[in-house]
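Action item from last week, closing it out:
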Amino acid sequence: MRVQKCGFMTRTLVVTPNDQLAEVITEESGTFDVEATTSQLTWLNPVLTILHRCNLTKYYYICYLKVEFPIPTKHIGRGRGAKAEPYNLGTLELKNRARDLSCMSFWF
């Protein structure tokens, strides 16, 4: 997976509606790998959430633009020791993606 960066580090989260399962920061090249496990008894519907600052003005210093991608079920391992097929989103150009503005202080 590679994210086209625009100057600052990009945060990547894997979340379910109630829990954050993993968090990574992209490499300098924009690439990242993320893996998460949980012991919940219910089925998960995880979402890959990418937080970035592409095209934000300096006045939004605590805000991030948010892009979300549902993770298909064939890429989710079920059961102890289960393996899932790797999910490759390819290369993303974040500044042109539909997104929401999230103004939480993630970095502080």
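Closing note: The first strand starts at residue 2 and ends at 4.
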